[in-house]
Amino acid sequence: MDSTHFNKVVYPDALSMAQRAAQDIAECAARAIAEHGRFNLFLGGGSTPRYLHKELVTEPLRSQIDWDKVYLFCGDERFLPVGDPEKNETMFRETLSGPLNFPEERLFNMPYLLPAEHAAEVYEKTLREHLVGPVDLMLLGMGPDGHCLSLFPGSPALQEQHKWVVSGPGLNPPAGTRITVTLPFLDQVSEGWFLIVGADKKPKLSAIFSGDMSFPSAVVAQRLKKCNWLLDETCNP
Ligand code: 6PG
What we know:
This protein is α/β, with parallel strands linked by helices. It has 7 helices and 10 strands. Strands 1-10-9-6-2-3-5 form a 7-stranded parallel beta sheet. A 3-stranded antiparallel beta sheet has the order 4-8-7. The relative contact order is 0.19. It binds 6-phosphogluconic acid. The site of 6-phosphogluconic acid has 14 residues, from strand 4.
């Protein structure tokens, strides 16, 4: 496994992983702002990011990040009405943008517009208009089936060669349609970090770190220019 895409750091628990990741994000933000005047951050979905967001909105890290120069985007979304508790946007607002009083003009959530294909097209337009410069950091999680973003094993979205954002079936609960950035979009990303906790992820991580490239998380890691894996002990292969 090459260290550029499969560099692994293991932490005793989710809290210590989140604390270190938050410190590293503050440093990443400072570098990006120094280099090109802003920090373009893609937030990760699911439940694991809650640990990280709590660290980011709490002192001392809250003050260490120049939030006025941060632009928040998301890599995928459960295609549900605004306010649905299962949406990643709901988690973002509850745990990060809300506590920060983060301004809407720099917060780019995926829209709920019917049909889902239209929502994907609109978000792609949003990215092409408002993502100025590279994605400095994309935060990722991995499901027990090895999916990441909303790129599930066997998902047609994995075959997309041109679009940056597509809609597709959510093969796992919560079931239903998903919106996700695609593999071609990852060429805009400078660096990705997987933050993964939980023993249910261990089997797939064991396969991936043994060289199995068949799971979407491994394919995404390999496509990124650089990818780090931050794990807690329970999922460490
Ligand atoms: C989603 C995510 C998904 C998530 C993983 C891990 O919308 O579900 O984007 O890729 O990151 O499923 O989820 P947990 O952090 O809840 O384990």
